[in-house]
Amino acid sequence: MKRSLLSLALVVAGAAHAQVKWDLPTGYAANTFQTQNNQQFAKEVDELTGGKLKITLHPGGSLYKANEIKRAVQTGQVPSAEHEIHCSGEICYSPGVEAGPFLAPSYADSWRLYQAAKPAQEKLLASQGMKLLFSVPWPGQSLYSNKPIQAPSDFAGTKMRAYNPASTRVAQLLKAQPVTIQLSELGQALATNTVNNFLTSSASGVESKLYEQVKYFYTVNAWLPRNATVVNQKAFDALDKPTQEAVMKAAAAAEKRGWETSERLDKEYLKELAAKGMVIAEPSAALKAEFAKIGDTMTEEWIKNAGADGKAIVDAYRKR
């Protein structure tokens, strides 16, 4: 009897010792579909590994601020994380093509662009000690304005919210004044007339109640910014083979689910914005032509900066 109890104790101790725990910080709130998708991913990893790998989600920048998250994974401070990748500088690893305005304005186009850019992104991630698990887009960045906009000249002299190099450049090319405002500060900026128009998703319009201060919404879908859930390569390599396979299986499911959810919710968000009194409209022919011109200009600028690898990505996307 004593030997049986001792054997059971050793088994329990061994199981406890074998369990791995990962923290997964994200800068996004718990109520966003991206965070909920990551929560489902963590749940499925737990189920597929029989509790061997436990992933704890930390939403809303509660563990690391949004601009610290990528670095935290890279340096091994945290094993996994989710963050947006259409930015630049040391906090990002993307070649940046996801933020090429008007290059991939639909979900189908964005998926093709993602597939074209993925090998370069994975190579860059590997050089920084990280591995891509999955990537999911937000709804397209469309145009919100407190006044009707029918022609490119309507932007001249207005104050346009900017939050990354791409949105700043769009404002400059439209002859608007770029004003750096984070989404959390947008409500106050609108109330004080610090901002007149901006690009953001239908999701942001609903979740941040932008319909309370902005009347017009134009479905320009400048780009579909993607979030990426990544893991520190050493942390992944430390898992046994079955656990690694379980993580990648759950990641593949999360990516498929995330893309489908994003596209479905975009339609629902647009209906809700209209129900809240916003005017939802297609951009005029003149605006479409101007946006296409801006897209060509910025794509060429990006290729010039990215070099041969960047050109290869865009060429591969356009051939698909």
Structure, explained:
The chain is α/β, with parallel strands linked by helices. It has helices spanning 2-18, 33-48, 69-74, 107-127, 165-173, 186-191, 202-207, 233-237, 241-275, 285-306, 308-319; strands spanning 20-25, 53-58, 80-84, 130-137, 142-145, 159-162, 177-180, 197-200, 216-218, 226-232, 279-281. The strands form 4 sheets. Strands 8-5-9-11 form a 4-stranded mixed β-sheet. It has a 3-stranded antiparallel β-sheet with strand order 3-10-4. The chain is globular.
Compact description:
This protein has 320 residues and is an alpha/beta fold. It is 48% helix and 17% strand. Strand 1 (20-25), helix 2 (33-48) and strand 2 form a beta-alpha-beta unit.
Shape: globular
What oligomeric assembly is this protein in?
Answer: single chain
**What is the string of helix and strand elements?**
HEHEHEHEEEHEHEHEEHHEHH
**Protein structure class:** alpha/beta
Give the overall average pLDDT.
89
Helical coverage, percent range:
40-55%
By DSSP, the count of extended strands is 11
Strand order of the largest sheet: 8-5-9-11
Query: Number of helical runs?
Result: 11
Largest sheet: 4 strands, mixed
Distance, first to last CA: 67 Å
How large is the radius of gyration? Answer: 22 Å
* Strand content range: 15-25%
Low-confidence stretches: 4-16, 87-94
